[in-house]
Amino acid sequence: MFKTKGEDVEEAKQLFKKLKIYSLLDLALIIPSSYNDTTLSTNFQLGKVGTYEATVKDVSVIGGKLRVNFILKPSGRYLSSTFFRTAPYHHKLFTVGSHHYIQGRLEEFRGYLQMSQPKSVKEVGKITPKYKTVLKESEIRALIECYINEQNLYNEGLDSKEVATLMRIHFPKSIDELYENGTYKNEIVAVMKFIEAYNHLKKLKGKRIDFPSLHALHGKIEPFVKSLPFTLTQEQQNVIAQIKQDLAREDRAAKRMVVGDVGSGKTMVILASVMMALPYKSILMAPTSLLALQLYEEACKYLPKEVKVSLVMQGRNKGDYREADFIIGTHALLYKEDLPDAALVMIDEQHRFGTQQRQGLEVLASKGGAKRAHIIQFSATPIPRTQAMMDSALLDVSLITTTPFEKDITTQTISKTDFPDLLTHIKEEIAEDHQVLIIYPLVEESSEVPYQSLDESRGFWESKFEHVYVTHGKDKEKEEVLLEFREKGNILLATTVVEVGISLPRLTLIVIVGAERLGLATLHQLRGRVGRNGLKSWCYLYSHAPANERLIQFSKTTNGFDIAKLDLKFRNSGDILDGTIQSGQKFRWLDMAEDEEIIQKAKNRLGK
Ligand code: ADP
Ligand code: MG
Prior knowledge:
By secondary structure, this protein is an alpha/beta fold.
């Protein structure tokens, strides 16, 4: 259908578009939802669909229903069948003495074989795959027949077992070689998982575009590392070593993402990278003025004195950025026309930037025409290791999964009956000059949410405690409220959307109302607000369903990477989430929570 003429190829392209597929393996991975098997049955399997050779013995109409009795070959047994929905052609088709291959579910009633509404099939011995797609059966089948063949599959880099498996799925010789107990056999599933991972990685890899770097960077980090008041953790050292390799390349500018939980020590990795870039310049963009300022202060504190650091923010600068070795700033950097060219461009907390700002950074990095600055991004949103492996086809990914200090946070689910104890605990913390954060699901009352809102409960807290502050995502005075709370507050009432940009070192207790309604990533972010300064802290998950398995599992770990993995597991099991987590790639066969080994194998096949 598609091979012969040019316009047929065009037609095939249109169909690919309709199917939203982009590679040959995408097509191969569209598998039949069922098979129509017209292989003649060799025995009588009751309850199963079978195909039998038969001759019509007699025909009658009883109560409006067509009744046809057959004699089966070669056994000579009788089989009676009833047609509940008849059309004129049924009467023409099943005339006495006519010969058929009938197909239907075989039953037995009082010793008589029966089949209701059998089909008369024209050709026996054929297994026809049935595809459920947006295309017509004939169209999808034509595509498969045209493109799915051994040669094309080998060309995609599959091995003989994988090719054979796909060929069996699309062109089966028997159903038994595919199915066991009505589902695909384990060995087939294993191969399909691999092909799915391999296809995904291959497509991503095809999208990666690399440029030569402006400069190969070889600056020494030892003076900086030796001067630190602590030893870098093994993971910090590993990431720094990876970056060292990236930056030393001239043929390819670095494109790396460093993912590490809040407090995992990413700033040290940033500073080490600045050292490697010397004598060339580095730029770092941060999402808020407060963060930029904090990074500036840390850079001044930890980098050797001869490294010139400057800060660029809207309206105010520190140091002369035209002279600096290391320029730190907010997105105000993107609008500075006389910003010097940098050999290394970094972005901190990249998850908090919009796409546009990230693209702005790409522009900063591509001032050198065909050559590009090295780019390193930092993210504090832990992702499952499997996701990192997948993403790394597009850009290199490093994970920092441990923190230099274990935070001491006790997490517990509580419900209504625990409320008096909670009040006591809150009073104790406040008496210690610590602070409390209470997160409500909504600002205003809603019949859809079975918990109190911020507005409904503030009166209660204000009557019981002094220095209660209230803010939420849409609050215009949020920054001021937070700053004032940091100095004077006891209790802060807020909603989940509140972005606490500043660190609140005295915060030791957080209550999350209606916790089961939130995704694990959100809960993790919220819990990360307490215990910033190593103070013993508590996270109470207030819920009408305190036995919620997700909450219980969450209570057992504070490691963001474990939580990302847990999140995947619960997502697979269909738990409802609040949508704050990026919805990952959906796979038909692969289980991102379990199939790390298979993804690794697919990566190895594709090579570096
Ligand atoms: P992140 O940016 O990943 O959230 P930071 O870089 O701000 O984390 O580090 C958190 C804290 O840990 C900082 O006070 C930092 O000085 C400290 N720190 C970083 N690395 C180490 C280390 N190897 N040993 C001890 N403390 C460290
Ligand atoms: Mg940081």
